[in-house]
Amino acid sequence: MKKSITPSQIKQNNQKLIYHYIYKNKQVSQQDIAYHLRLSRPTVTTNLTVLENDGLICKCGRIDTEFAGRKAAAYSIVPDFRISFGVEILKNEVKIIAVNLYGEKIGRVVYEILYENTEIYQKQICRKILEFKVSLGVNDEQVLGIGFAMQGLISPDRQTVLYGRILSCSGLSIASFTKYLPYPCSFIHDADSAAISELWSSPGLQNAFYLSISKHLGSAVISRGEILTGKHGHNSTIEHIPMVPNGKLCYCGKHGCMETLCSLSALLGEKETPESFFERLRQNDSATIKRWDIYLTHLAKAINMLHLIYDTDFILGGYIAPYLLSEDLSILHEKIRQITPFSEEPDFLTISKMPRHNISIGAALPYIQIFLNERSGE
Questions:
Q1: How far apart are CA 267 and CA 290, in angstroms?
Q2: Phi, psi at residue 96, to the nearest 5°?
Q3: Structural domain of 254
Q4: For every one of its 378 residues, what pLDDT tens digit does the chain have, with 9 covering 90 and above?
Q5: Domain final residue, candidates 44, 77, 110
Q6: Pick from 87, 107, 245, 278: most CB atoms within 10 A?
Q7: Residues 103 and 46 in one domain
Q8: Nearest to 334 by CA among 317, 318, 321, 349
Q9: Is residue 100 part of a domain?
Q10: 184 shares a domain with 160
Q11: Residue 303 domain-assigned?
Q12: For residue 97, what are the contacts with CB-CB under 8 A and spacing of at least 6?
């Protein structure tokens, strides 16, 4: 026998519908809510009062509506009712960002701290996170969780670093951090984190191959709006595909991997920054143009190989994305066209829509998404 829905469940569902509608439309009136959700005005009024008293929404001036009469009171969600933190751990620095319910940055700090797989290091990072939280005026109740973006493969439960050769952190447990932090915490592979940012900025994105071109190379396969993790946790580790026999030594211990040809480390000199490289490139420095051409040749070979396996859009993201121009994509596409057996349209190559802070923001977003899913009843 099918169970009947209780009045309490109906009320809860209406609150979720109203909250989600306000979240999606940013500023709305009671009339708009009642009309578009097909709810009575008294029902809307009652639920708005509850949501406002709970601190989830607030009045924010007045707006025009589809209905005649004077301007109506406008309602918006309170973006920082809940926040989350993203922490990107690198060899020489730590980047910490706080985002609100819209995934917008509300604060960011960077510390130059050399990574060590020690309790002293972990305690220090946790102390920096807590100090940053206090500086933002955030209370513990607001914090949904903290995502740690790692240069390594992560277990399906996001509790352990399975493979962390870059930082020598294989086997690291999230418990090393949670014992100093009173919030839910989890690890995430940095490339997956960047891809999550991309999905957030492009809600309609369904299928794509995301290339995270930063100091190290990474990638993520997006299928039906989700990131594929693979059977053993090492899906999309294209950086270790061998491309040049007896080539440069990769950090994995093998030679000639894609990492040694297509990462930013492969493009830049030891103390060179992306800013200085691309500044010289845009000034038509001949030596820099030659290096860029060689790099794009390697990148074209890599993308062509991957595109032959997965015929989908390719998104160029990571630290390189803010510096890329449409003319760079044109050159890259032409190089691909010359080596591929098929007639390639250039529309499969795009630049990330969220190029800055994408890794740290992406580490924070899963906690935001969980909260929003709970509020929308998904």
A1: 11
A2: -120, 130
A3: 204-351
A4: 455 678 778 888 999 999 999 999 999 999 999 999 999 999 999 999 999 999 999 999 888 766 556 688 899 999 999 999 999 999 999 999 999 999 999 999 999 999 999 999 999 999 999 999 999 999 999 999 999 999 999 998 999 999 999 999 999 999 999 999 999 999 999 999 999 999 999 989 999 999 999 999 999 999 999 999 888 777 889 999 999 999 999 999 999 999 999 999 999 998 899 999 999 999 999 999 999 999 999 999 999 999 999 999 999 999 999 999 999 999 999 999 999 998 878 789 999 998 789 999 999 999 999 999 998 755
A5: 77
A6: 87
A7: no
A8: 349
A9: yes
A10: yes
A11: yes
A12: 85, 86, 87, 105, 107, 108, 357, 360, 361, 364
Whether 98 and 63 share a structural domain = no
Cα(21)–Cα(89) distance, rounded to whole angstroms?
A: 36
Distance CA 267, CA 278 (A): 11
The domain that holds 270 is classified in CATH as 3.30.420.40
Strand segments (E) across the chain: 57-63, 72-77, 83-89, 94-99, 105-111, 143-150, 153-154, 161-163, 185-189, 208-213, 217-223, 226-227, 313-317, 349-351
pTM comes to 0.92
Q: Are residues 240 and 272 in the same domain?
A: yes
Count H helices, E strands: the chain? 12, 14
Q: Indicate whether 2 belongs to any domain.
A: no
At 360, give phi and psi (nearest 5°): -70, -40
State the number of CA atoms in the 13 A half-sphere of 26 facing the CB: 2
- 22 lies in the same domain as 53: yes
Task: Give the CA angle between residues 322, 323, 326 to the nearest 5°.
Answer: 100
Q: Is there a single domain that holds both residue 127 and residue 180? A: yes
CATH number, domain containing residue 17: 1.10.10.10
Q: Is residue 188 part of a domain?
A: yes
